[in-house]
Amino acid sequence: MKPATRTRRFVAFLAERLPAEKMSLQAMVQKKEVPVHRWSWAYYLGGLALFFFVIQIVTGLMMLFYYEPSVATAHASVEHLTNNVPGGALIRNLHAWSSSAMILSVMLHLLTTFAMKAFGRPRELTWVSGVLLLFLVFGFGFTGYLLPWHQIAVNATKVGLGSIEQFGEYLPGDLADLPRQIRETIQGGATVGQATLSRFYAIHVVVLPLISLGLLGFHLLSVQLHGMSPGVDRPTGRTEKFFPLFILKDLKVWGVVFLMLAVVAICIPFDAFLDYPLGAPYNPLGSTPDGIKPEWYFFWMYYPLELLPFWLVAGGMGVLQVGLLLVPRIFRGTSRKVLRTLAAAAAVYLIVITLFGQAIYEMFSGGH
Fold first, then answer.
1. Which value, in Å, is the radius of gyration of the alpha carbons in the chain?
2. C-alpha atoms less than 13 angstroms from C-alpha of 278 in its C-beta half-sphere
3. How far apart are CA 53 and CA 213, in angstroms?
4. What gap in Å lies between CA 258 and CA 111, rounded to an integer?
5. 314 with 260: CB under 8 angstroms?
6. Do strands 239-241 and 33-35 pair parallel, antiparallel, or not at all (unpaired)?
7. φ, ψ (nearest 5 deg) of residue 33
8. How far, in Å, are 51, 82, 94, 277 from residue 263 at the CA level?
9. Model-wide pTM > 0.85
10. Which domains does the chain have, with CATH numbers?
11. Mean pLDDT score across all residues of the chain
12. CA–CA separation, 162 and 184 (whole Å)
């Protein structure tokens, strides 16, 4: 194919996905309609993910006034915020609980979007931007976990970063040292220390939010340009106006969810829910706690890593990530019935491995 032909096809592709004639407030909001059918509840998941992200931004900004990104004072600043600042414990609980809720919402949103085949033409870029946002929220979770700088957080981060170096065992001689160099670049040296905390802090509060805002803006623009996907093979033909009917329903859902979140944040301190609460500050001479585990949203890859060869799980995760980005091409001719079966299987796996992962691990590892 000639370069000029490829360029014309690429321009035509973008023109269909980002139609300039629809880029007006009236076209994107006032004329937009939402299909009404048995899967209509799934349309609220994207809005919920956005709502929890806003809570993350607001509570995160409030905590910035007290948090000190230093290995000498980070833990003490979090303790001070939690125990001495009026409302500090509530803000921190809201931030922690809404973080888990945001990740859960994004995962459910991805599964339902896949099941409804909402990635089909011309919504391919909407899907890709959504997958990238999923990767980013996992990045938020991983970088934010280190910031309290307690014993379990630092040791868990060492384990997570150390897994990068294992790739060197499967690379040829000239490249075998590359994973170690990547790990040390991320953590700012041979060991996890002040440079690691500073980098994770910058990534968590500056880099990831800026990238997320850009991707989120594109994702929302794409959704507004193309409207809601029909979602089912036999649409009912019934619709409701996006503005103001659906937005008012969205706000009602947000209000109910925020009330539930506030009750949980007031009644259940997030630290009490963890296997390892805030505890004592990190001591480089202290012993590594037994049974280190990541946050629940990493269980789906953590327990397979405990039971299967590293190369197999790591390779599978790489294929999964690339596969998610290529879903619009891989499954463009697949029926919604098959897609829903695959989405249901993925949901069952995530639920089982999250709730019963420890029992499964003990069963197949002989309790070791």
1. 23
2. 19
3. 10
4. 23
5. no
6. antiparallel
7. -125, 150
8. 17, 17, 10, 20
9. yes
10. 21-290 (1.20.810.10)
11. 91
12. 10
Query: How far, in Å, CA of 28 to CA of 32, rounded?
Result: 6
> Could you read off the pLDDT of 57-116 as tens digits, one per residue?
999 999 999 999 999 999 999 999 999 999 999 999 999 999 999 999 999 999 999 999
> Closest by alpha carbon to 251, among 40, 46, 47?
47
User: First-to-last CA distance in the chain?
Assistant: 58
Pick from 34, 42, 46, 43: nearest CA to 236: 34
Tell me the two tokens of residue 99: 């973080």
Please state the rounded mean pLDDT for residues 192-204. Answer: 96
Question: Using CA atoms, how far apart are residues 165 and 21, in angstroms rounded to an integer?
Answer: 50
Give per-residue pLDDT as tens, 317-362. Answer: 999 999 999 999 999 999 999 999 999 999 999 999 999 998 998 8
Give the Cα separation of 329 and 68 in Å (integer). 46
Q: What's the token pair of residue 343?
A: 């989405």
